[in-house]
Amino acid sequence: MSALVEARGLRRVLYGEVPATLINGIDMDIYADEFLAITGPSGSGKSSLLYLLGLLDVPSAGEVTIGGRPTSKLNETARARMRLETLGFVFQFHFLLPEFSALENVALPMRALGRYDDARIRKHASDILASLGLGDHAHKRPEQMSGGQRQRVAIARALANDPKLVLADEPTGNLDSASSAQVLGILRDMCGPGSGKSVVVVTHDPGLAEQADRRLHIVDGKVSP
Amino acid sequence: MSGMLPLVFSIARTHILSRLRQTLVGVSGVAIGVGFSVMMASIMEGSQEDFIRQLVDSLPHISVTDERREPPRQPADQAYEAAEIRGLTTKQLRPGIKNPYAIMAALEGWLPGAVAPSVQAKAVIRFAGRDTAVSITGIDPKREPDVSKLSTQIRDGSLDALYKSSNAIILGSGLAKKAGARIGNSVIVTAGTGRTLSATVVAISHAGVTQIDDNSAYVLIKTAQILAGQTGLVNELRVKAQDVLQARAIASRIEAETGYKSTSWQEAHEDLLSAFQMRNFIMYTVVSAILMVASFGTYNIISTITHEKTRDIAIMKSLGFPSATVRQIFVLESMMIGVMGLLLGWLLGYAMSYGMAQIEFKSPFMDATRLPIIYAPTHYAIAGLVALSASVIAGYFPARKAAALQPVEIIRGAS
């Protein structure tokens, strides 16, 4: 079974007066239909690894291959295009655009991709929101919604362009237990058998990690056995 | 990238509408800049055009005189090429234009305009014991209306009144006031040649230009010839061109054909026109400065928005918005402020120009009763272009900074 994402010899060093090594030689694969949890203590490099896998950051050394395509030589525009087409992000904070409604926020990546016309984009955005139980909140702004609702809108936005890989950084970190369970359920369902999708979640939450298909424990920028 | 434009427009519009107060301040800044620029240009060019029009109307478009550009070669000069001639004195009497009526007939054959003869003489007018220096022009009242506005500038009396008495004279309004003379008064005219005659004031002219009204008087050609002591003298041909802007070219041709010095109104007022050019340069510099200052307001607003929107920019970039799209969003916001400002500015400029045109204004040098304003599309176009360019530049720098932002730094910080 070929991997959806392959990372080889991944290193990330912040070069300052005192260089800091965030990721120190990680090899890993992510497969389709897989729910992978990345765990580890604070400052271990979990989020940094997620940013490298999501092409938000550039490794100091090593290579990330997504869908068989190496990314280290891609320019900024090509990396942005790959993020738009292949990846979806969910962060600890919802990071919705405050002036836009839930529907508009979800439509944003689709409009940027330009694959569909406006009517189809709106329909698709409405469908995603409805599938996440937010059909009645489509025209609300983020400030008019609860934390759990906002995070579900952020998940809807991550799913808008039907990405192969969803990367979530502490997606339940700011949610109560009920909302956490709801969000977790959504993420878990996304990468069910035969979906062809993968979800990678960075978390401190042992309960969430237990529900993952596989766990990757990071300590000091390395995969801990 | 064109597919992104509706999205870019939509985000830009949302940003500026969500900061309505700041946007209004920016729009007002541009509008005031454009409005004042348009008004300034309208007034300054309006007054300039009015001044030039009065000058052109009050003098012949071309004056052909009995002078030569180069002094005639002297016999000694011809005999000894290297000789330098010094201390030559001019003839006491002006030579006059030879065969003036034949030259006039020849000119009328091709000239796009009209031509009339005149005699120029310097004299002193004495009235009630007061002497006033005057420049006398001998004219033909029948031809004069074809070459000058003198007939329309007569306030009291008429041009034909010159025929009513044997020695009739028309005085400029300022001259009449200085001398204290009125219509019907007899004045003593003493020419530079020493000849004296008594003339009756039959009309008062008013050109609206102080220099002319204070120093000019008009008599019949034959009266001027008597004063000059030269029967048959015509020392100036006055030409009015159908197109005033062709005066320079026509003057050159007349000079080439007749050999006599032909001075167009442009040449006669070269210094003034140069001064106007300089004034226009200064005006457009000031106008540009006003608009540049206005653009600082736009810069400030776009900078503030990009600063406030740092997190949103990071999110958009993390979603996959290219840097160019982020840059376009903020440049477009700046352009929106610029366009709204310039549209309002055009309205404001027109309204202020119209308002200024209603103000009554008295100048000791000009005759205008209201500020002369011109409504030239060029003024609106220039102000609009400068305002829009300044807005784009003002938006570009914060936009470039926003586009260069690394999303991971913001996301890491926010997390």
Notes on the protein architecture:
The complex is a heterodimer of chains A (225) and B (415). Chain A has a single domain (32-47, 80-224), classed as P-loop containing nucleotide triphosphate hydrolases (Rossmann fold). Helix content of chain A is 34%, strand content 25%. Chain A is built from seven helices and ten strands. The mean pLDDT of chain A is 89. By secondary structure, chain B is of the alpha+beta class. The two termini of chain B are 32 Å apart. The radius of gyration of chain B is 33 Å and the shape is elongated. In chain B, strands 2-3-8-5-7-6 form a six-stranded mixed β-barrel. Helices cover 55% and strands 16% of the residues of chain B. Chains A and B meet through helix 2 and helix 3 of A and helix 1, helix 12, helix 13 and helix 15 of B.
Search tags:
heterodimer; A: 225 residues; Rossmann fold; 7 helices; 34% helix; 25% strand; globular; B: 415 residues; alpha+beta; 2 domains; 6-stranded mixed β-barrel; 10 strands; elongated
